[in-house]
Amino acid sequence: MKSQKLYSLCYLLFLLICPFAFSQDSLSTSVMTQQQAKITEGDGWVFYEYFTADTYGTKNALTGMAIIQPGKEIHPAHEHFEEEYLMLTQGSGVWTIEGKESDAKTGDILYAAPWDSHGIKNTGDQPLVFVVMKWQSKGVPEPQSK
């Protein structure tokens, strides 16, 4: 089961990283360290913003990592036109998806389709850490809101 999750995560990362290797007028293949990331701090959370430049196949991209303290959230459930993956790498909490709550556990991954309301709150007693990848595909029209 763990190897299947690891395989799935590696495959997802491969699909997201491939455009970097073939881009010509966009982000080139590179590594950004946590020390190089743009840091934003809020009430009980820190967000590390990594790559945001266009790639061969994406625009309006955001890659980052958040650390949220117990009882906190970065923001309430929200919606936007970009697609998004959010993977919980440490801690536990509550997912809110389209107004419905469910348990969030280490190893879970969320896919949010355009305009679907989604969010996460740390309801555990340890810091919650997630990695996020959000983007809009080039050549694909912006989806209409619901």
UniProtKB/TrEMBL annotation:
Please provide, alphabetically and separated by semicolons, the GO molecular function terms listed in this UniProt record: metal ion binding
- Cleaved signal peptide residues: 1-23
Pfam families reported for this sequence? Cupin_2
- List, for all copies, the residue spans of the domain called Cupin type-2: 65-132
Going by the UniProt record, its keywords in alphabetical order are: Metal-binding, Signal
Name of the protein described by the UniProt record: Cupin type-2 domain-containing protein
